[in-house]
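Predict the assembly for these two chains.
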Amino acid sequence: MTSNTITGTGEKPQTLLGADELVLNMGPQHPSTHGVLRVKLKLDGERVIGSECMIGYLHRGVEKIAENRSYQQFAPYVDRMDYVAAVSNGLGYCEAIEKLLMVEAPPRARVIRTILTELQRIASHLLWLGTHALDIGALTPLFYCFREREEVLKIFEKYCGARLTTHAFRIGGLQYEAYDTLEKDVERFCKALEPRIKDYEDLLTQNRIWLGRTKGVGILSAKDAIALGATGPVLRASGVKWDIRKAMPYAAYDQYKFEIPVGTTGDTYDRYMVRMEEMRQSRLICLQAIENIPSGPIMAKVGKVLKPPPGEVYHAIEAPKGELGYYVVSDGTVQPYRVRIRPPSFVNLQSFDHMAKGHLVADVVAIIGTLDIVLGEVDR
Amino acid sequence: MADEPKEQQPSGVPAGDKPAGSAAPPSTPPAKAPAAAPPAAGPPKPAVPPPPKPPVQLQTPLNNELVGRIRAKFGTALVEAIEDRRQAIVIVECGRLGDVARYLRDEERFDLLSDLTAVDWPKREKRFDLVLNLYSFAKNERLRVKARAGDGEPVPSVAEVWPTANWLEREAFDMFGIIFAGHPNLTRILLPDQWQGYPLRKDYDIIEQDIGWVKENLGIESGQ
């Protein structure tokens, strides 16, 4: 590297660097950045002394699009934010608009929503586990994780025809009835998952290389996590027992028993353990939910044209990545006046600089992986 | 009456809509039919349910203990306290936002700044609503703090109170052009640094873009 500034990109020149320091540009086309994240690392030898995340490569102006679509028309767009957890995005949006309209989805719809959302959490965590392990050198889990994730996507496909960007829910409830063998499929998947999670743990939890790459890497204390606004597994791994599913229950979560796993040190290993346990808990929620799906309608009485009374609402759900919030303002017309999406990935990514400081370049890859970001949601 | 529009529809609508209706389980159509019927009874086209529309006042004044404490501490700086759909909203004077934020974090234990964003009301004298969604772990309670700011009027940054506001304020600056006084690094975050215009303002059209930037950096005539 002849110069310490990255020329030709129109950026401001870097501040003065010491003799041993250099600036390394990582991404946006880097396999470990899970999309188009670009990180500028300021290095002293191989140690990170500062970093800056350059985001926005995938910015599509989702919030602007929302202001120019009707409430129902915008619903499929939210699937394209966190595209590995589309069902969760849809749940948050539909519930926010339902709050704005002051209607409630019928019990049957709420339970089916809960089942699908928990399956989506498992699928999202499986994808995270596979790619995170791959990033730091464990090739095998990727294949296993995708095998199980496929089962979840098959259930989605049977339910609504789509696998990834599902648009599974509608404002007011569901469009599709549960198909005949949904309970059986979910049960079979959940029964098969338990030994599979044990398989992953056999591969990783006590693995010396895994421990070496994750223990003590990217520590985030509870105080820092809260100050930086981190939510979801990142916050829980730091020891804060907070889960919106328990704190402010939505859908049908108040009916089911589950634990909130927490970590102690807030390092990459703790976040791994928290997400593994979350998959087990999601599995338990699914098993409880399929035992008793109430009968009845699946759609509340909402009009074909939605005109929520003027006002505003903020509704947040516990998405696989953290708090996913929708702040919707209505002016009484058919189009939302403003839709603000509070993306968990965007806010969690802000902790990256704090976590990466003092670590090696190789650990940067582990820290990006452990934050479990999806750039579609960071950039929106 | 209820059957008539139903029979007309399939003949008018091509096969695309038919399977969705027929594949639906037997339990749903009866539930849906009465809901769709009353509006269809009059003119067939507008399916908007107009009949019962009492002027419900959804925004009611809020007067709980928390609001009382804020009022006692800040007096007239608390412009209004309202409740909308059972969510608490306090509107404070823009200049005192930093003090209010510090008070809410330290004394009222709103530790988590969930979200910070803005809403544009171009017809208003002070066109921007700055919106902070706070959460308190201790009370398991949310609070929305709003402040009104004019175009170009500097707003006190809360990035020192909640470090998470750093990126959130940068995004508000990027999208609305709101200036945050005291922000450590107020630059664009999602759009390119040289971009002209603020896309989430209401006077920025949905297909509008910075054509100069697009031509110069992408080498194409238009991004559309």
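Chain B is about 30% helix and 20% strand. Chain B touches chain A through 53 residues (CB under 8 Å).
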